[in-house]
Amino acid sequence: MTDTPAVNADPAELAKFSELAHRWWDPDSEFRPLHQINPLRLDWIGSQMPLAGKRVLDVGCGGGILSDSMARKGADVLGIDLAAKALRVAQLHALEAQTPNVTYREVSAEALSAEQPGSFDAVTCMEMLEHVPDPSSVVRACATLVKPGGWVFFSTISRNPKAFLFAIVGAEYLLNMLPRGTHEYLKFIRPSELAAHCREAGLQLGQTRGMEYNPLTQRYWLSANTSVNYLISTQKN
Predict the structure, then answer these.
(1) Among 35, 77, 136, 151, which residue's CB has the most CB atoms within a 10 Å radius?
(2) What is the DSSP letter of 129?
(3) Which CATH code is given to the segment(s) 11-236?
(4) pLDDT digits (tens, 9 = 90+) for 2-52
């Protein structure tokens, strides 16, 4: 198998997140929503598997918000991304915060799956699938990387008129929660499509939860409503 780390990546997407990399750990920056939803994501993962003592891979880790918090829960975490500037920010933060047991690498999920198949107790891939040309390829790589019986956690955005209204018009243009152009509607993924990718990759579906937001109270919460943002947990057969 050839190592093609840059094939399943959009150069414009990488440039977009690299441009903002220095602001990743500013909770009042464009990454504020990631800081706000991180406790929800962390608790949801922890409710399905204990993180302490587990080897965890965070695919599309960006500046390391989730990677760092999982390491602080006792996991041995490897965060991977193809945005070099974001990775440098993640590494610097880990040094400054003295976060134990977290490392970062510039490598694609597909390349790492050829190098380290079946090496991780859990794999997380959050808010990343809607930014790559071929999300099914990432799902397959995640399935290859996790051990049999291990967990793979995904989160992304559904594709429907409500999601367009909330995630693009609302979040990017009306509320200015995210930079304009953060998301492309046609790259959004319906829960049924992601579920099909998971089954094809040998992943058994677990829990599906929606993530909702109230702009008046600025509060996020998990619910049964998967029409916009949603999370899926899976286990390798």
Answers:
(1) 77
(2) G
(3) 3.40.50.150
(4) 344 446 877 877 777 777 778 889 998 888 889 999 999 999 999 999 999
